[in-house]
Amino acid sequence: MPSYQAPLRDMRFVMNEMFDYPSHYAALPNGEEASPDVVGAILEEGARFARDVLLPLNQSGDEEGCLLEGGEVKAPRGFKEAYQQYVEGGWPSLAADPEQGGQGLPPSLAMMLSEMICATNLAWGMYPGLSHGAADALRHHGTDAQKATYLTKLVEGVWTGTMCLTEPHCGTDLGLIKTRAVPAEGDAYQITGTKIFISAGEHNLAENIVHLVLAKLPDAPEGSKGISLFVVPKFLPDAEGNPGQRNGVSCGSLEHKMGIHGNATCVMNFDGATGYLVGAPNKGLACMFTMMNAARLGVGIQGLGLMEASFQNSLGYARDRLQMRGLSGVQAPDKAADPIIVHPDVRRMLLTQKAFAEGGRMLVLYTAQMLDVVEHGAAGEEKERAETLLGLLTPIVKAFLTEVGFECTNEGVQIFGGHGFIKEWGMEQLVRDARITRLYEGTTGIQALDLLGRKVLMSQGESLKVFTKEIHKFCQAEADNPALKEFIEPLAKLNAQWGELTMGIGMKAMQDREEVGAASVDYLMYSGYVAVAYLFARAAKQAASAQGGEDAAFYTAKLNTARFYYQRLLPRTKAHAAMIQAGAGSLMAISSEDFGLGFEI
Amino acid sequence: MPSYQAPLRDMRFVMNEMFDYPSHYAALPNGEEASPDVVGAILEEGARFARDVLLPLNQSGDEEGCLLEGGEVKAPRGFKEAYQQYVEGGWPSLAADPEQGGQGLPPSLAMMLSEMICATNLAWGMYPGLSHGAADALRHHGTDAQKATYLTKLVEGVWTGTMCLTEPHCGTDLGLIKTRAVPAEGDAYQITGTKIFISAGEHNLAENIVHLVLAKLPDAPEGSKGISLFVVPKFLPDAEGNPGQRNGVSCGSLEHKMGIHGNATCVMNFDGATGYLVGAPNKGLACMFTMMNAARLGVGIQGLGLMEASFQNSLGYARDRLQMRGLSGVQAPDKAADPIIVHPDVRRMLLTQKAFAEGGRMLVLYTAQMLDVVEHGAAGEEKERAETLLGLLTPIVKAFLTEVGFECTNEGVQIFGGHGFIKEWGMEQLVRDARITRLYEGTTGIQALDLLGRKVLMSQGESLKVFTKEIHKFCQAEADNPALKEFIEPLAKLNAQWGELTMGIGMKAMQDREEVGAASVDYLMYSGYVAVAYLFARAAKQAASAQGGEDAAFYTAKLNTARFYYQRLLPRTKAHAAMIQAGAGSLMAISSEDFGLGFEI
């Protein structure tokens, strides 16, 4: 069975040594609760829960999958008990508002716990995971009565939530949805329609499920401007707020999927189900983005967790597996062959995992600080800046970390050789589980359009400048630091090029809107590489200044990881830059009909 | 269910229009049999067999998998009947030696059929697929009696073959094998040991199975110089050559794998099984490479087939699925939304599949001509040249086509969005099936060491020069062709850089052997991109000169595909070149112990 230890030392490095989380937390309202001691204790307790409770259920959950019987879904063996422990431990309410019974700790802290959960059991993690989005939507857009009825239960974790958006004929293009909401008694509506790909849509972990459902009111405007959001509970709460009458919503079937078998991905049938409007009529898309943005960060963290899990197990295997002698001579003369970690190409793969996991963690914790300020900070310039950066970085966190996360889980299989393909070792499950992260909550292509189109170009590049200026200042400040020369020089160039590429696309897009789509994914990947390069340069600065002492080996390894990232991963920006500059021409040249002339008769 | 049409038009373009296969075949002994009409008819018949017989069994085979009961393995429903049809159709003997009952057609032709089989049912294709390697080993190294007993049956397809190399503790490093061969009565040996990952090791498709087994003789030298090859039949042939007494070899268990579920991947126990030496004692490794090289080309073709399959179905989906409007305006005003093929990023993914599939086909058919000459051509300069090119290109075909093949099957999932993750659509199966191709018959890392270490550097770069000279001549000849300027200029530069990079590695490697391993995979990928770029330039030349006429749209699409390849895929060489030049330093810096300091306590 795969093993896992939460990377607590690395988390401490990023939180305390790089980003000064102690001061950051202290400056937040309620921040005194998040003292370094408390944070440390929570992370350690979470690490134990993930390792001891969730990890042992990961492979068995994958093998068993979920069972739909008589309309009820049974999650794999042990999932329900683990969820009970999770609720009893108070984990769901960690970062929730004290007004709704939450502990009021900063969301960034919950994100580090989320990394551990995703690393050990992604399928399980999606049962409580979706509740956050539903809770966010209710917190921001729900009435006081809705908050009292649903939000408190979601925060406690005794009920879980879903996001019911996708329908068979539409996922990305939600303007096409067919689910209808017809006014009924009082403030109720009757919801009718079919939703697909509903994670945790039906299960036996919690006593009730709160569906957040997109539907159209009668006479709603066409397209995305005519979408409204409704809350539709599985059991209608009774007068005491406990689950009462069964509502007209049920699971029609479970999807058979490539991965995350332990999670129930449901077709949900709404058959005149009773629902209540959340937010204003026809403004459901805005409410949905509230859920979606939280969910997108969450999916990026899934990529991070999965690569860390793959890295740790690959490292163990690479140290144990004996195969061939080192190219420059025998390394382990007492053994029949050398451990494969001596081979440079195995090291290249391990370092790819290590660098992306550590880089991803920095990116998440950098973005998480912005989220803390947006959620809890006082209005003002700092909050505005945090909002801009959060908006800019959310699609990068989501898409970049899931793209490289998938790559890293595949490196894990590759390091295991043929054994990586065998289920027993657990490495191929990480690949199958990781595959969905590039798709759900908006594919990489959609994230890329969000980044380049909505975030960067719509602001005339201003949102990007907030970030590139910060990088520029850092480069200027360290320009004369000889220890950082190898990082600052390439970073400054790439940072300048980032702006130039943006300008170039903007100019071309004025002539031809297709240029935005043509450049978008390469632009997102370029952005991800440079953002992580900036953070590795800061890590290198920290590590260089902290060298010596009892953690000397840790800092040296960190410096060398930064070096590897700059020398062996960052050059990929050269390719992305060239492909961005190549433009849309070669993409648009072949007609739909002529695409298949090689095989169509 | 996924659909498939063999890309006959594209095959004709490459074979007849680009590489003049008619003359190539005519120049081979027995070549008059391979007239364009015969070749065309065989390809069309093969296309029907793949589409009508194999494709319908692909998803069901994946779902059912294989069953081990009482030592017997049952392949999925329909596999046995399809195999009977395959044998009755004379397919196994197509390219085999007439002396052993083969049809004596060139191996290149069998490779195009193999593409179709891999595209429609890889798991099935591995039952007959492994026989070729076993047959090759016997043909080259077997005694006349062994040929009479085993080879004829393998050629007919009434028996199938395996390659029993890997053991639990060693795959790449076969010098470590523990299986023993002890002399017994007459020329027989008793073979004892355990082999794992044996594809088609046991099954119900054929009446006998011929295992080619690596084992060590008593007092054999240590390591890879002490390996011998044995033929070990499942049933010992009786006096008439029919399956007689059951031999002491049996399937201990079946592996549970990420993909190719329909193929039986067996743990094989040899328990004093009777075997016969093939080739000279302790020279088994050379015999094994005979099998291995054929198998490596075969695996590259698996990558090709899978990407073509993914491309075709992605194209169909992209034309049908309606989602969002085109960025530059409505494209299908009569529909609720535009088909997603209008979106540039969807086109980028489709074109990536199309360009790699067409590029891969050119690379396979270029290499296949060399194989034809090596197998059938008369001794002389041309044959020597073909041997050099075949040796150089085999690891590139194997590793490059499986790496980009995996990428392309993943693009297929991405184009399908969330539906790509659902089993029903068949796209995720292609990913799972493709995943093994990067591993078996030598991982990408092993192919890369073969290319850079054995093939290029060991020949002081001479083998590479044979190929780069050809490219150089082509670039010179077309230097003044304005229609090809956009291809020739970058190709000439990359070709020159290929030599420079090689020299650079060679120089560094004289100081430090680790530099070879550190550069190897990036070098292999760089080589693959440039080789395919050369072939796309030739395709563009052909298409440019053939424009007009009734196939004008085909040639225009080909030119545009070449353009896409040059503009949007070939720039990846920039990254690979930079990573090669970065050297081994950052890979070797961190000690095995310090790799895990972020999480190990």
UniProtKB/TrEMBL annotation, chains A, B:
Its cofactor is FAD. InterPro entries: Acyl-CoA_dh-like_C_dom (IPR025878), Acyl-CoA_Oxase/DH_mid-dom (IPR006091), Acyl-CoA_Oxase/DH_mid-dom_sf (IPR046373), AcylCo_DH-like_C (IPR036250), AcylCo_DH/oxidase_C (IPR009075), AcylCoA_DH/ox_N (IPR013786), AcylCoA_DH/ox_N_sf (IPR037069), AcylCoA_DH/oxidase_NM_dom_sf (IPR009100). Residues 467-590 form the Acetyl-CoA dehydrogenase-like C-terminal domain. Keywords: FAD, Flavoprotein, Oxidoreductase. SUPFAM superfamilies: Acyl-CoA dehydrogenase C-terminal domain-like (SSF47203), Acyl-CoA dehydrogenase NM domain-like (SSF56645). It holds the Pfam family Acyl-CoA_dh_M. Residues 163-271 form the Acyl-CoA oxidase/dehydrogenase middle domain. Gene3D superfamilies: Acyl-CoA dehydrogenase/oxidase, N-terminal domain (1.10.540.10), Butyryl-CoA Dehydrogenase, subunit A, domain 2 (2.40.110.10), Butyryl-CoA Dehydrogenase, subunit A, domain 3 (1.20.140.10). It comes from the Bacteria. Residues 282-450 form the Acyl-CoA dehydrogenase/oxidase C-terminal domain. Residues 76-157 form the Acyl-CoA dehydrogenase/oxidase N-terminal domain. Transmembrane segments: none annotated. The keyword Oxidoreductase applies. Belongs to the acyl-CoA dehydrogenase family. This is Acyl-CoA dehydrogenase. It comes from Vreelandella piezotolerans.
